[in-house]
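Supplementary material to the annual report.
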Amino acid sequence: MSATTTQTSTVYSAPGEPGSPVQLKARYGNFIGGHWVAPVIGQYMKDLSPANGRQFTEVPRSSSEDIELALDAAHAAKTAWGETSLTERASVLNRIADAIDANREMLAVAETWDNGKPVRETLAADIPLAADHFRYFAAETRALTGSSTEIDKDTVAYHFHEPLGVVGQIIPFNFPLLMAAWKLAPALAGGNCSVIKPASSTPWSILKLAEVIGDIVPPGVLNIVTGPGGEIGKALATNRRINKIAFTGETVTGRLIMQYAAENIIPSTTELGGKSPNVFFADVMAEDDDFLDKAVEGLVLFAFNKGEVCTCPSRALIQESIYERFMERCLDRIGKIRQGNPLDTTTQMGPQNSQQQLDKISSYVDIGLQEGAECLIGGKQPALHGDLAGGYFFEPTVLKGHNGMRVFQEEIFGPVLAVTTFRDEEQALAIANDTLYGLGAGVWTRNGNLAYKMGRGIQAGRVWTNCYHAYPAGAAFGGYKMSGVGRELYRETLTEHYTQTKNLLVSYSEHAQGLF
Amino acid sequence: MSEPGPDRVIATPDALAALATLRQQRGPLILYQSGGCCDGSLPVCLLDGDLRIGDADVLLGRVGDCPVYIDNRQYEVWKHTQLIIDVGDGEPEGFSIPAARGRQFVTRSRLLPPAEPTEKKGPSHDSGCA
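Predicted assembly:
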């Protein structure tokens, strides 16, 4: 399958090249009603790989007409899918998971090529997590239970979880397939049909997913339309024919999403980013043991997915008394991060998603330095050679400063860590919460009581405690404050966000009430 | 609102030209400075009236005849810097109108001169090693 394998690494061939697990076409269509459909007005957009900055395929640059076609297909399918038994719905989701597992390498390489994230991560995390997500919601839907309440001797209230109908879903570029799974699995589990729009810079890997699962879902249950956010994202979110909108992305668009939902009186869920604090108490250095090693890795996780994660632990708060010794270990580990060809399984950090991401990161480092931050490591693009010279690489970077700086307050969305110190628990909590966002946080301490108090005190939807960057299904995920509204990844995603409650209030009495 | 001192937001000639062309094509526009996530820190270009503007929004200034807004909580964090609206390559991921085909508005920043009042947010900023 791969071009070269040594004892220590495998280097996959890029999609379309000889020996690659990924077949590549020059051009793709939208996936609508179980078929591949050319865009109505016939326009296409380039898809570039961040590994080398070059175009490798093109996908529809769709317009609102394509959204209408997708909605037609979804509406045509929604009654039958909504009435499909839980057993059969669960079976479909499990078969999707099986297909993802069976095509793990292909999907991992495709994802790596479209986004730039290292294949080491897509093989070990993105793709297996995506498959598992469908399995989790298969289980949840198979066991979906309503309730009945005996109101009185002759009156019973029955509660059913009914599908919403057709849902619109808009996902970001940072985990294209995993974000697709997080949105599609509960939507389909709830008996809904989806029209989903992938990000403009990573529109292709979900089309490869459709190639392997397209025959498993009934036609019209899954519809994928690619194109620019301002046109088709808006066309979808404002459309009167959706019963719900789900969005992960930036704050202004998130606000528009909620506004459009209000106009149409439909529910919305949003995940809008963060500036997650990662708090390290002095006791992590009480022993030189595995746990200390884990804590060091915990800080270095700001580089996971090249920092393009809404929950990137991008602010490290380190207790003063251990700062020098702890940072020394961390900088040593950061200095050893292997950047390079994302298709090489030894590469730990791939290129950023696009030139514009790269430019933004550079400009943030620049503003940080202007504000007086000290650059401890990185701060520039690495000098890579050959094909990679055109790739969008940036070195893992650490800026030391204080929490009022813009680099501490804004989501840089790159491998840039802002680090500061704190005196005590009270100050740690104050700094941790001194942010507009509240998506993720990390707390590291050997003291369980302290961990609990900090975790309950931090205003974020997810507080990793003595760990970070774990996204198992079954653990609720979503924002406080400006990070959005709603929760994904857990049972209630299905019952609260992707179904609606029907109450049948039934009287078994023969007698009138006596009102009239 | 206008305050003494340098403009809070300015634009490059490229950005002004792009805005003028778009205005001719589509009508009055606004720019809204984004805060986070994937697009993050891009000025989102929208048709005037698309986004409901209210008390939570601060008018930073105008570039050409295009108002530039920012969330008032974000403003507190940004106000010691000047925003420079420019144009760069790439499609905006969110609902922003592109500056041109394959081009988007971007924000660069520079620190305002020290004479400019920089009201820091609170005691928590005295923490750390700065």
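Chain A touches chain B through 65 residues (CB under 8 Å).
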